[in-house]
Specification:
The chain is mainly β and about 110 residues long. The chain is about 10% helix and about 35% strand. It contains 1 helix and 8 strands. A 4-stranded mixed sheet has the order 4-5-6-7, with helices on one face. The protein is globular.
Length: about 110
């Protein structure tokens, strides 16, 4: 995931298999910035998941970093609270194609 250019994609064996697609991260330089680093998918929620912290829908959440950071469906015009907003189609694709343990690199 490229935070500077607001792009994310999936790849396998060094080849892009989906994307790149636009995304909206948490605002840099704030407490809600999307963290940089290498992480692994911890678990996936379904289409109707509600954030336990913010009490708002985060459809197709794929949790990958400490503190509940996830890819999920959301606005591409409004920064997230540290997660990564994707359009709903991309969020569903990530949910369906990122298995538990998959590596997530955020730079």
């Amino acid at each position: 995931m490229d935070l500077k250019n607001h792009l994310t994609w999936l790849q396998s064996d060094g080849r892009i298999t989906y994307g790149p697609v636009s995304m909206e991260p948490g605002p840099p330089g704030t407490r809600q910035a999307t963290p940089r680093g290498t992480f692994h998918v911890q678990w996936r929620a379904g289409a109707n998941y509600i954030s336990t912290e913010y009490h708002v829908p985060i459809p197709y959440a794929v949790f990958f970093a400490p503190g509940g950071v996830a890819f999920h469906g959301g606005s591409l015009n409004t920064p997230s609270h540290g997660c990564v907003h994707l359009d709903i189609g991309s969020a569903r694709y990530y949910h369906d194609h990122l298995p538990t343990g998959a590596e997530v690199v955020v730079f």
